[in-house]
Amino acid sequence: MNSEIKKRVLIVEDDKEIRNSFMVIVNSSSQFSVVNGYSSCEEAIKHLNTDKPDIVLMDIELPGGMNGIKGAKVIKDKWPVADVIMVTVYEDSEMVFEALKAGASGYITKSANYRELLAALEEISKGGAPMSSKIARLVIDNFHVNPNSPLTKRETEILQLIAEGKTYTQISEQLFISKETSKTHIKNIYAKLQVKCKSEAIAKANLEKLI
Amino acid sequence: MNSEIKKRVLIVEDDKEIRNSFMVIVNSSSQFSVVNGYSSCEEAIKHLNTDKPDIVLMDIELPGGMNGIKGAKVIKDKWPVADVIMVTVYEDSEMVFEALKAGASGYITKSANYRELLAALEEISKGGAPMSSKIARLVIDNFHVNPNSPLTKRETEILQLIAEGKTYTQISEQLFISKETSKTHIKNIYAKLQVKCKSEAIAKANLEKLI
DNA sequence: GGTGGTTCCCTCGGATTGGGGTATTCATTT
DNA sequence: AAATGAATACCCCAATCCGAGGGAACCACC
Lengths: 211, 211
Hints:
Arc Repressor Mutant, subunit A; 2 domains; DNA-binding
């Protein structure tokens, strides 16, 4: 394959050994080539316009001012065409979701061998989202709504409308019921969720995936 | 491998040919065996307690009263230990998310050959979430927040609090600003999003992934 | 016949909301 | 030096929304 059309890979990783190891692996491929490697996000961000990466391998646990999450956000902001793959030692649930929100499209561990690393690059190149089984399941499970909701169908329906910020009046209009009925339902929701205002109800509903 | 510890696979698929083909493939594996195959969710649900499936292969486009989405919901409700894999011809975005919300843990196409089908079963057995590259990316992209938000940092922060149902007063207390300042920010948010109440703001924010 | 879900009604006062202005400070940009 | 954008703060005002307290009817499913 001609080097002109090789995908440009940028590596941000503070551990020099890992960084070099990743560089060697990536450069060994006919499809990818490393355009640069940095030990901090700040440096990487400075040279985005000249590095022009297609793919960024971003360490999450970075020393100094900017961690990988924030780094991914800035990079996606300044150079949106790049696909970001997070590289981490932990598969911590909270961190995964923060990284995804920040714009990451893949998630691999530092223990990845050359096969896994190249597979991830290939996967993201063809429009996929490389990640481990565990993380895939984590992400998918995050969509599941709680099947053990204490709320009735109608109450859930109304809770959804509350989540959209609808007022009593709007809810009653939308569901073709009286305003008083909406209020009754909401009172029952409050009792079941043990909350005392819309705010708390929505917060609790999101927490327990009731909607 | 002893048949006693084979994973019990249930197939719900109205097309007899596909159903039989899937049955043969699954039974050819040493790890899995088909406990039953039905052409409708209703039938499958009736026999859940005797079929005791570990994995359910569920067709989405099912004729009659109950489609696969609703079917998955009921099955996860009545037999929660089962992992549900949706089987479909389309990779329609809306349908994917509905299926995931309903409790599905995997998503494969009907065009899957025996390798792909068995790979999906193995993947879900080891706690993963089998899906195509395209769907993985769809799901991951769904987490990304819009980097082109018209809102400032502070406004986004306040919008998040509104989404939690907080009132002006609560917001001002939490951010250590005056109540009037919260109002000013919210007025600006309304102007930028072209909405005129909290409800619409939240709905629009969710739609455009502003938070 | 009971239970649970959904519907409807009443009263009440205090808090919240949204719309209209204006203004200061600070940092960045031009 | 001027301008812009962001964040902060204050004023007035009317509408309504909210949460809490009751009671009650209808229907479907056990």
